[in-house]
Structure formats: structure tokens, C-alpha cells
Amino acid sequence: MSHNVHGHPQMDVQVERKFVPKVKDLGPDVNWAQINKDVLRSLEKPRPVFWIIFFSALALFSFGVYCEVYQYQNGMGVADLNNPQVWGLYIATFIFWIGMGHSGTLLSALLHIIHADWRKPIYRYSEAMTTFTLLTAALFVMVHMGRLWEFYYVVAYPNERWTWPNFTSPLVWDATAIGTYLTSSLLFLYMGMIPDLAICRDNAKGARRALYKFLSLGWQGTDRQWGNFKVAYMTMACFLMPLAVSVHSIVSTDFAVSQNPGWHVTSFPPYFVLGALYSGCSGIITLFIVLRYVFRFEAYMTQPILNKLIKMTFAIAMVWTYLDLIEYATTWYGSDEVAKADLLYRATGDYALQFWGMIFCAMVMPFTLLIRYVRHNYTVLLIISLILNVGMWLERFQIITPTFAKSHYPWTWTAGWWPSWVQWGIVAGSFGWFTMLFMLYCKIFPSVSMYEVKEMVHEQNLEGKAMAHANPESEQAPVGLLEGGQA
Amino acid sequence: MSTGNMDRRDFLRVLGISGAAATLAGCGHTSIESGVEEVMSYVQPQDFVVPGIGVFYSSTCTQCGSGCGIMGKVREGRVLKLEGNPESGISGGKICGLGQAGVQAHYNPDRLHTPMMNIEGGLVPISWERANQLLDEHFGTKSSLQGEQIAFLTGGVSGHQRVVLENFLESFGSTQHVCYDAISTATGRAASKTVLGAEQPLWNFSKARLILSFGSDFLGNGVSPVYMAREFAKFRKAPRGTLIQIEPRMTLTGGNADRWYPIKPGTEGILALGIAHDLLQHPEFSGKVPQEVLDLVKNYDRDAVSEVTGIGADAVRLIAAQLWNNTPSLVVAGPAVEGHAYGFSNAAAVQLLNVILGNRGNSLEGQSEHPFPQMTPTLGSYRALAELHKKMVSGNCQALLIHGTNPVFTSPTHLEFSEAMKKVPFKVALVTHIDETAGQCDLVLPLLSAMEDFGTHIAEYQPSGVELMLQQPLMEKLYPETKGFGDILLDVLKKRKPQEYAVFPDYYSYLKAAVLKAKPVFHSDEPDEHFWETALMNGVVKWEGKPTDLEAKMVPLEVPEPHGLTTDYPFYFVPSIRPDMRDGRHAYLPWLQESPETMTTVVWDSWVEIHPKTAAQMQIKEGDVLLLQSATGSIQAKAYIFPGIQPDTVSMPLGQGHTQMGRYASGVGANPYKILDPIFDAHTGELALHATRVAIRKTGENQKVVKDEGPTNLQNGQKLVATLSADQAKLAREI
Amino acid sequence: MSLSNLIQNWDSFRKRRPYEDQYKDAPYKWAMVIDLDSCIGCNACTVACYAENNLAVVGKERFGKGQAMHWIRIERYWGEGEALETEFPERGAQYLPMLCQQCEAAPCEPVCPVGATHHSPDGLNTQVYNRCVGSRYCSANCPYKVRYFNWWNYPERAWPNPLELQLNPDVTVRSKGVMEKCTFCMQRLRAGQDKAKTAGRLLADGEVLTACAQACPTSAITFGNLADKNSKVARMWKNQQVDLAKNAQDKSEEGVRGYRILEDLNTYPSIVYLERLRNFAA
């Protein structure tokens, strides 16, 4: 191989760069065979903690199922919903889960389009997270419905009476958007997995082999297949990105097009999209740490990648904070007295704890990400990423509950309304359901993209060699892999 | 109710030809859940039934004594809904909530289906054979009961039921028809009789420009609430009349007042004399007022009155001026005035204002003469019960029949009525559902509901002439074992006086014969059948009559101050009467339980109303469980902060606190009757309902007050209810 | 809403409602006037509604949870501002019968995902129980909070035998999971309209009344056909200077007391309230 890979003979330009050596996302000793071995190992025998997580999730999920069956049998009344508190935790948690999904798409699609290669080891599980959060959110649509056995009325399906859903209703937009998003995400996830499934197929035995064989659609890794794959994948990515933005914008219209104080806000669509990305990013950080530990992915989920993720999260958190403050400011300076009273009520009324909890968890806590210690201590980071998401959940809670508690009609105001154990049970169950699905997925499918990490290693090696020629010392710079150290 | 074998002839015999309610043999209970429903043929429907079409039949509401004409919507043999009967001069096609709940009394799941007998302290279902045997033993021809040994305790009864009842007693030589009303207005009626010359004069709202009401809730639960409400609505149209209400606790009527004054309970008469004092200053009165009256009122100058009543001297002057400037006016007194140790004088002083203002002949007239004095309603009183009680305790009462009243629940603790019941060897209750009193009887007979029985009624308050109201079944009886009130008494009478009563197969035929006998009184020359049919169809037969003159006179009566508050009992206790619950007889109707009491919007409960200022002083919050302690006893209820109450007063609604009245009433709230002190009106001997003084103690518990009202009563700066000054409105121009 | 229907009626479908003379050619537009000076707060209307419309009695516990089903409720206010500064409610209480306002531009209608609540040609805001999936968005968006959801399966417990015999066969008994609301007693309207149609005429003024209007002892509730310019309700609207299609009324005359509640939310309610009067000289 030539010493001048890029075909630039002017060595002095590259010498200039030696003082800012590019941080490598992966360590130097990752070879292709090792990648296959490491990732396929995750399908075999995880750490015992996997089973602890899995069965805890299963238990939570079972409790949620119990609550739902109880609610189904007795009516929504068991949730202590009432007039005017008609939505409660179900819609709040629905938005939360929809939001969680968005960052998966951001990582897998947007960063793919702009060739941000550091996404490669972590996009697969993020995309899976998107799919499963959407499934969880869809669950809440069902749980929330008074007559869930008639849920299909919301979908535009052909029928002999020519009855359609009401296309002016944001809920129909919701159903359509989520349906589209879920389908596309699932397709995108699956499509990206095909080359990896082929690797699995080649290494598996028995029933698993049959499964992978079926799913890999006869992938042989020919040039023609790779060519088509790349085009299709890029097309999907381009389709998915605007879709993701539209989905949470549409979810925000559930509120923004309504009459209620505190909901009737123009800035809701971007605010919701950013909120979604925010909670999604911190969700990815959480899962990053969990997967890295459970499946021993230390070689691929490295500190430099995490750093980039954290930087992105912080940036998004700041934009979200800005939009949130804008919402308050416009309400405050606006002439809608009822909305103003509603804002004041949120901050000082029955749900002030939740409001200030949100401000603390989602607006103040991100600043801890600026501390190097936090970024490097995975236990602390895990906790903080969870706190950020608690903050985002509280945000959804305090959009819905205080508005219902004090809307236009004072006679029906409710003071200190609180959800019943059934609602909490179902919310807890949804976390169980998501975790269970996600863990199962990681156990059955490669949660780190093998072929893309190989690409990454390849390119990094090419770059590294070029660098080594330019600046031999940098080769010796210690790069702590397992410790996640940063140069 | 499926008898299945009723032929057309039976049908006609039982229900009369045209007016009868449609009955239907095959109309089983429809089961909503299972969808099991008996199918009815459209091709061969039953007589008088058009499937799917509701037919209206006239009848009379028996939920209270107002005697409103109602119409029952009957469809497929079931009565579905009650509406007002436009033929009736009292209801005029309107109906109150209490009246509409009559269908729930009929369909109540806690209705009594069979006769019951007390065996070893508990009621056990028995057959009618056994019940008849018991009745025969005690009331048959071989009965040794005589004269005053037998007594009949009822609530208000009128029409032919009263006639049959009194004939029943007469066959034993007894006149012991005891009429008890736990919210009796006997004191007020006596005062009205003394001053105005009539117990219940006609109130011509249409002729009055101002109504001054001392604690009279004529819109909620007066003598004829629906009629009064209709008249009041006209009173409010152009030229709009003014209502001034003075009472310790805001009633429904008080809520409609142009000006509402809280007054110390029991001082209404003093205020009335104070107003009279002001009025009599006008030179127009000189020489026209008896000296005794002038002597009486001269002690009641504004300042003195103001001190006693808590109503400012300016207000006294203002009220007097309003009365003077708005003649004719109408001054009315209600339970809040009567329920004191000097309730009679109190009410008489209030009525004196009417005489001074010359309202007689204008806004006040006498009710028309009465063609059927034997059918006028018996009006209950507490004293009647107390006298019966004496007889029961002394062992003079050997048999007691009880109908339409629940003294075990409503009599105050100090009367110990339950103990007296034990001294009576044979007690029979004629009821539609078991209540506390029936629970202590030896024999309980299941009555037909008001929707299943025949009857005639005559209301106490007759706005114009006299209306004989007819009650007819709106559907076939639900339970085969139930029997009409009149039928039960008639069966006994037939045995005792066969020569007079054997000709009547049932109460229906008796009633028909009796009404037809009265035909000449109505100056009707129609054929009998036609007259009867028309009567049933209209639900009312009207006797033209004219208002009579009142013999009002100025009766100067000293009004002593009510006994004051002590440190032991620092609060006046005002038991309020809910328009729907009354004395508690309707507490088993779920619609009424769920219907928020308008002033507080509380449902399914009892509560203690307390003024915000007092509550703040005592650090009482809404929902704090309070212990109300009177000299007689104590009860607990949740606090409700209520601005429409005099600050030294606490109030609690009557009617709740049942222990034995079916699933909807039992265990709901507390019963204020049980803490009433033994204080009686000096003149009439009536129990003084408003004379109890109580102490309040917090129990430390706080429970949610279940009410419709939200956490705030503000309108949030929005125009929800808006008020306009009456002089700015152009009512005359409105449509 | 079939596709062909949608295409054919696109013009009226996309028109902003209400517009001037919207009901000019329509036979019926149901509307109401409630005179707050006549309303005495007696609850006759609420009980009538329970009787007519098979409303479930929910019991103390559920009422306490805010799950009551009263389609019409009497609200009792003590007033605002000056009225609250006095120690006692000197001018009495303020009663407000609140029921579905049958808005012409109803906030509940566009948000229903399945079109279960929609506007009828005679101007009613209707609820199709069979179609309702129970998303409760309509209730969330209703500024008056007069929509009531079946939180429980009320038929199980609300009418123990034989109370169910009282149920009105013309009105559906709603089961759990659907939204319900005041219908202006549409079963009565429907029966009356059919009867009139058979006779080849239109309903006369006052021929059909809602249960609440019929029961009201003070006749505070006037119900009728706004499309008929000679009906009492239409004349009252005109007399009170309230125009259905306006969100801010021109009150050129003094002492006119008709107003609609929360009109500034552009809901165009079909119920006009008349201000309560008080003689402040007393």
C-alpha cells in the first residue's frame, strides 16, 4: 500500500495536524474475525445479569397485564379517571414512549445520511429501541381506549358502509403516523440486519439456523447485493428522517389544536420533536451502558462514541430547554388569561412538585454532563441518563394533568387528582414490556452491526496508517479501551 | 307481573274502561345484559297497547301532599316517566324532581313483596292467608278491641282513603286517627288562623309587588312547591316583584331573594314587630290601629330590634320602607319562624305585618269553600303523636295501625317512641317498603305502589275552587302479593259491616260509587259512566269556587326572646328541610340521593353547614368530621363551609341517617332528629325544631365531602352567571 | 362519510360553520333559552333528565371520584368580586343549569377520531354510541365539560331489578367505554318530526319539548326551532340580540340580557342564557 493513500504528496500539511490527533472511535486491535466472534457471542451466553433484567421485566409486564385485564373487565373507572381528568397517565406515557423512539431514527437514519461513522456500533440497538418503544406506545393507545375491542375504527379500512375515520381528528393523524413510523422503522431495522443475519446463519445450528436462513433472504454478499442494499438502505433513511420529525409533530397536535389552556401553543411541534430526541438520546445512553456490560461489548461501545452521544444529548437538551422556556414566555406575555392561570397553576398548584421536578431533572441535570467525571463513570452516567428520562416523563405528566385540573370551566376543576394503582401498574408494565422485548431482541439478533463495524475498522485502519506515516508518535499514544479513556 | 291469563273482561273490571293504564300480560322483566326479552306481537297486541307508542294516563302524585296532577307515560305496559298534568290547576303541566322520582318508589328494588310477620324479633315473610288470619283475629267480628284501644297513625291522608280509614276506625267506635308529620307546620297554621283567620290563606303572588319571607321555603318544600314556583315565575316577569328573605340558613327560596338577611334563629317575630314599629310611624295609620298593638310595638324600636336579631337598624328601616312603597305586599312565615318555644307568637307577629299592610283581600285571600269537608287532608302535628304516645305508654292502646309515616325514625330521642311501641300488643304497618317503624311492627302488609293503586286526593292548598284529584293505576301491579291500602281496610269493613260494604267487590268499585255519588256536587248531568271516564281521563274533577274573605285582625302578642346560647352549647342548631328528602321518607329513591342539594351540591350524605367566619375561628375545614352535641345527644357529620348561614348557627339537613330503609338509604348520613332538645311551642305544644342548641367538637378526622361543586366557586373571570340590576332590564319588552 | 358523499358535498364540507343564514332553508335548528332569573335551582330538570335518558345513578363513591353522569347539572355560585366581599350572599345564590351547549362550531366534533360525535342537519351535536371507541378526546376538548364517559359498566349495577323496567325504550342504555351527553332529547325530536312528516307538515312551536324544559316548574327553559322565525325561541334570540353565527354580539339596545357562555372560544353555542336580575334597591 502506498504511503500516500489520499494521493496528496504535500506532507507538511499533514504534519500540521499532528498536534490535534483524531480520536479513534475503536481500538487498534479490533480485527474482523474478532468482531464476528464478539457479536455472535452475545447471542449465546450473556452475563447472569441478563436473566435478572429479563425476568424482572417479565414480572413487571405480567403485573401490567393483570392491571389491564382488571381495567378491561371493570371499565376505565378503576383507573380513577374522571370528568375532566379523562386521560391521565396513559396519554402522558404514550407520548413518552413515542418520544423515546425518535433518537433511534436520528442515529440510524440521519447520522447515516451525513456519514457520521461513529454511529455504526450503536445504531442497531437504537433502531431496535425505536421499534420497541413504538410498539409500547401503540399499546397505550389500546390501554387508553374505552372500548379497545373497537380499536380498528380508528384505522381507515375499507368496509361495506363506507365509514371512514374522522380525518380532521389529530388522533387519526396519530394512528396513521404511528402506523407508518412503526412499519418503516421495523423495515429499516430489518433491512439493516440482513448482512448480519447472513453471518448468523453461517454460524448457527438447528432451529436458529433455519430462522436466520429464512430472515437473511439468501444474502450472499455479492457486489450486486451490496450495491442494491446500499441504495435501498439510503433511500429508507431519507424517507425515515422526515417521517420521524412529522410523527412527533403530529403527536403534539393532539394538544396544539385543542382548546385547552397550556396546550393551545404554536411552538408545540418543534418542542415535542426536540423533547422526543432528548428523551431518546438519554434512553440510548442508558441502553449503551447496559448492553456494554451485559453483552461485553466494551470493544465497540467505546468512550469516544459515548462522548459524542453525550455531546449530542446535551445539545438537544439545551434546544429543548430553550423551546420550553419560549412556551412559558409566550404564554406569559400573551393575552390568554386562562392559559396564564394554567401556567401559574402548574408552577405553584397541586402539581408543583412534578413541575419543578421536571425543571430539575430535564433542565438542570443535563449540565452535569459537562463534568468529565460524570461522562467517564458509567454508574453515575447510568443514573443521570435515567433521571433525564424521569424528567421527560414528568414533562408529559405536567402537560396533561394540570391542564385538565384547571381548564376553562371552573365548576369542574379537580384539586389534587391522582392516578390509581391501576394506572401506575400499567405504566410500570409498559417498562417491563419494553425491556423484555428489547432484551429478547438482543439475545436473538445481533445488537451491534457487524458489517458496519467492520467497515468502520477498515476505514479507521486506513486512516490510522495514513496518520502513522504522517506522525509516527501518535501510534504509541495509549488508548484505553476498556476503561473508556480519552486521549 | 306476568299473570298471563287476564282476559279483557277482567281487565276492564280491574282498571276501568278508558282511563286505565295499559296493562300487559307478557311483559316480563327485560334483562339488559342477557338480551332476554319477551317478544310482543305487533299483529295481536294486548288491549290498549300499541307497541312502541307511549300513552299518557292521568293520575295524582302522592310523593307529597301538594296533590299535583301528573301524567304517566305508559309503554308496553310499563310506566316509564311522570310528567305534569296540564289539566291540574296545581301542577299546570309541571312537575318537581321529587314527584318524578315516584316511578322509583314504584320500581324500587327494596319494595316489599309479601306480608311479613314479626317472629322472635325478626320479620319473616308469611302468606296472605296467615296475614288475613291475624287481621281477622284482631279486627274481625270477634275482635274485642273497642273504642280508643285501636289507633291509626298516618301521615297526611285525604280523599276517600281518609273516609275509608275513618269508617274503619268508626266500626270499632274509635276516633283515634292520629296524624303525625315530622316537619309539621301546625304552629304556623295556628298563628295564621289566629291572625289572618285562615290556617292557609291563598297567596296571590300575582297581586303582590313584594314578598317578604321569614324563613318560608315556599319554592322548595312549602304547601305546594310546584304551584308556588309557577306563580313565582310569573311574579318575576314584568313588572318584576321583589323577594326579601330573612332566615338563619339560606333555603332554596332564600337563594332566589333579591335581598337575603341572616337572622338569629327565633327572633323573626321581634324583627317583624320592629318593622311594624317603623311602619306605624306613617301618619296614615293614626287612629286606625288598636292601642294594644301600638303599645306592643313601641318597645320594638330599630336599635333594640337590631341588637336582638342581628339585623342592622338600617336594614330594618329599609325593609319597612320597601314594604311601604310596594303595596300590596305579601308577608309569609315558614318553619324557621315556627320552630321555637315561642314559635306561635313569632309567627303571629310576622302575620301581623300582613294585617298592618292591608294585604288582606289583595295578596291574601281565603281559600274557597269546601264541598267535601270529610275528604280534606288531615294535617299532621307532633302533638298528636305525643298524645298517642301517652296512650301507648299507659297501655290504653291495644292495636296500632301505621301508614305513611315513620315515627321511629323521625321522633326525637326524648319521646322514646320505640319503647312505647313495645307496649302495644299488636302493631300493623301498611307500607310499600320496610322502614324503621315497620321493622318494629308485628305485622307488615305490602301495599300497592302509588302507580298501581286507585285513590282520590284533595290538596291542602287549592289555588282556585276545589280540585278532586284522581289517582289511578299506571300499570298492573308488579308483585301479585301486594294489595291496595283501600282494599285492605275495605276487606275488614266488609266483615264488620257487611250490610254497608258487601256490595263493593273492591276499593275501585267503592271509589267509583263514591265519586259518582258526588256527581251532583259538580253540577254534572252527564251519564255516570261518562262522568267517571272523563274524571279518570282528566285526572281531576274541578269544583268551581271563589276565594273567600279573611277575617284578619290585629292580634297583639308579646314575642319573648328565644333562649340564648350558653358556653356549653354555643350554637343555634337549624335542621334544614331538603325539598327532595323532606323528613326522610324519600331517602330510598336513588335519583334523589344522587341529586345534589342545590345550595351545597352535596350528594348521598349529611353535612353540617357552618359559616366561613366561624369555621375560620374554630379552624374547621371542609370535610372535618364534627361532633354535634346537644343536651339530648350527639351525632357526627362532615363540615361544609357555607356562607348563607348566620354565624352563630350550624345547620344540618333532615332526612338522612336511616338504619333500615333499603340499600339506597341505609347507612347514609346521620339523623338530626335524634339530637333535638325537648322544647315545645308554648301555645300549640308542637316540638320546636329550631330551638336546639349545640356544641361542636372536631373529631380530628377529615373525609371528602362528595359534592358536585369543584374546589373553587369562582367563575375564573368568565361570564358564566351574570347579574343585571332589575331596573336596567326591560322585562316588559321581552318575549 | 362516504367518499362520493365527501366529493359531492365538498363545498359545504369545507365551509366554516356557522355562517349567516346557515339554517335559512333547513326545516329545523334546535336551540334553547334559559332564563337565569326564572331558574330557582329546584333540580326538577336534572331528575327529569335521569328519567328520560336512562342516566345511571353512580352512587356516592363514584360521584366522589367525579364520575357522575348528570347530563344537566345545576351549578350554584356565590358571585364574584364585590359579591364575595360581603360576609353573606346578600343577593342570594346564583343558579346555572349547565348542559351540552350544542355548539355550532363544537370543539368536540373535529377531534373525535371515528366521527362518533358529529353535527346533525338540525344543528344538534350528536353522539353515536355504537361508533364511539372511547378515546375521550371530545371530553378533553369540551370547554364546558358536559360530556360524560361511561367509566364503568353501569347497566350491571345502576338498575337492580325491577328498576330497569323504568328505562326508556327509546334511549340506548350505554355500556362501559362510550361517551355520552345531552342530546336535546333527540328521541322526542325524532318521534315528533316523524309524526309531523307523516302528516305532511313541520313541527309546531312547543309541540316537542326536552324533558328538562317540560318539567321546569318556572318555565325557565324555552326550547324550540330556531329555523322557524316565528317560534318563541327564535323571537327570544332576536329580542335578546343574540345571533347564532356571531362570536361577539352587537348589543345596540340597553337592558338586553341574553348571552352565551364562553362565546369568546368561538364555539357558537345553541343555548342563550338570560342574565339573572336582582333588585339592588332592596
Describe the protein.
The complex is a heterotrimer of chains A (487), B (735) and C (282). Chain A has a single domain, classed as Formate dehydrogenase/DMSO reductase fold (Up-down Bundle), CATH 1.20.1630. Chain A has 16 helices and no strands. Chain A has helices at 11-16, 32-41, 48-74, 88-113, 123-144, 170-203, 206-215, 223-256, 268-294, 303-333, 337-348, 352-364, 372-376, 378-405, 421-444, 450-470. Chain A starts with 10 loop residues before the first helix and ends in a 17-residue tail after the last helix. In chain B, the strands form six sheets. A seven-stranded mixed beta sheet of chain B has the order 5-4-16-15-14-6-7, with helices on both faces. In chain B, strands 20-24-21-23-22-25 form a six-stranded mixed barrel. Chain B has a four-stranded parallel beta sheet with strand order 11-10-9-12. Chain C has helices at residues 3-8, 10-13, 44-53, 60-64, 82-85, 108-111, 137-141, 186-198, 211-215, 232-239; strands at residues 30-35, 73-77, 94-98, 117-119, 125-127, 147-149, 179-181, 221-225, 258-259, 271-274, 276-278. Chain C is built from ten helices and eleven strands. Chain C has a single domain (26-83, 91-249, 256-274), classed as Alpha-Beta Plaits. The longest helix of chain C has 13 residues, at 186-198. Chain C has a four-stranded mixed beta sheet with strand order 8-1-10-9. A two-stranded antiparallel sheet of chain C has the order 2-3. The radius of gyration of chain C is 20 Å and the shape is globular. Classes of the chains: A mainly alpha (487), B alpha/beta (735), C alpha+beta (282). Chains in contact: A-B, A-C, B-C. Strand 26 of chain B pairs parallel with strand 11 (276-278) of chain C.
Largest interface: B-C, 104 and 84 residues
Helix/strand order of chain C: HHEHHEHEHEEHEEHHEHEEE
The rough form of chain B would be described as globular
Helix content of chain B: 25-40%
Helix and strand arrangement:
The complex is a heterotrimer of chains A (487), B (735) and C (282).
Chain A: H1 11-16, H2 32-41, H3 48-74, H4 88-113, H5 123-144, H6 170-203, H7 206-215, H8 223-256, H9 268-294, H10 303-333, H11 337-348, H12 352-364, H13 372-376, H14 378-405, H15 421-444, H16 450-470
Helix pairs in contact in A: 2-16, 3-15, 4-5, 4-8, 4-9, 4-14, 4-15, 5-6, 5-15, 6-7, 6-8, 8-9, 9-10, 9-14, 11-12, 12-14
Chain B: H1 8-15, E1 55-60, E2 69-75, E3 78-84, H2 97-100, H3 102-106, E4 116-119, E5 122-125, H4 128-139, E6 150-154, H5 159-170, E7 177-179, H6 186-196, E8 202-203, E9 210-214, H7 225-236, E10 242-247, E11 259-262, H8 268-279, H9 291-297, H10 302-309, H11 313-325, E12 329-333, H12 335-338, H13 343-357, E13 364-365, H14 382-394, E14 399-403, H15 407-410, H16 417-422, E15 426-431, E16 443-446, E17 455-457, E18 466-471, H17 485-496, H18 498-501, H19 507-517, H20 528-538, E19 540-543, E20 571-576, H21 590-594, E21 607-610, H22 612-618, E22 624-630, E23 634-641, E24 649-653, H23 662-665, E25 693-702, E26 723-725
Parallel strand pairs in B: 6-7, 6-14, 9-10, 9-12, 10-11, 14-15, 15-16, 20-24, 21-23
Antiparallel strand pairs in B: 1-2, 2-3, 4-5, 4-16, 8-13, 17-18, 18-19, 20-25, 21-24, 22-23, 22-25
Helix pairs in contact in B: 5-17, 6-13, 8-10, 8-11, 8-13, 10-11
Chain C: H1 3-8, H2 10-13, E1 30-35, H3 44-53, H4 60-64, E2 73-77, H5 82-85, E3 94-98, H6 108-111, E4 117-119, E5 125-127, H7 137-141, E6 147-149, E7 179-181, H8 186-198, H9 211-215, E8 221-225, H10 232-239, E9 258-259, E10 271-274, E11 276-278
